[in-house]
Design brief:
Layout lengths: L12 H11 L5 H12 L2 H27 L5 E2 L7 E5 L6 H10 L5 E2 L12 E5 L5 H19 L2
Antiparallel strand pairs: 1-2, 2-4, 3-4
Helix pairs in contact: 3-5
């Protein structure tokens, strides 16, 4: 639908307005009207409520599977918000190396070091869970266990 908004400091409004003008002049009026009705009728609130419940269940599955299968290999804690959790690796284990190995197994796990300006005491992996069914989460954790078991024992 390409409908969105940004809250920016007053001194950046001109820059953002200019960037928007380069892209297009405004969102479709029909799309805006449809979205207004969708929100006004309460559909968006129901959707958000439903997704919060679903995502909480999926996060619980991921945490439980990590605790059961990855103890000593990856430290994962519950997050109160968001769509990802961070799994902390043991000291001395490269998160970029693990991320590359995971990609070979069709697991997309971003290394936390890619988002840091300075080196952290230990590496970590960003674990997304919202787009996956429980059985996919369980299978992914099994794949990650095989990777970590092999890589950490070296």
């Amino acid at each position: 639908m390409r409908i969105g908004c940004a809250v920016v400091p007053p001194d950046l409004v001109g820059i953002f307005t200019g960037a928007r003008a380069l892209n297009d002049t405004h969102s479709s009026l029909i799309d805006q009207a449809i979205l207004t009705k969708f929100i006004g009728d309460g559909h968006f609130v129901r959707h958000v409520r439903r997704m919060r419940t679903l995502y909480e269940e999926r996060q619980q599955t991921l945490i439980a599977e990590c605790e059961k299968n990855l103890a000593g290999l990856l430290d994962v804690k519950k997050a109160d918000a968001g769509m990802h959790v961070v799994g902390w690796l043991p000291e001395g284990v490269s998160d970029t190396a693990i991320s590359r190995k995971a990609a070979e197994q069709n697991l997309k796990l971003a290394p936390i070091s890619a988002y840091c300006a300075k080196e952290l005491p230990r590496g970590g992996l960003i674990l997304g869970y919202t787009a996956f069914e429980k059985n996919q989460i369980k299978e992914g954790v099994k794949k990650l266990k095989a990777i970590l078991s092999t890589e950490i024992s070296r």
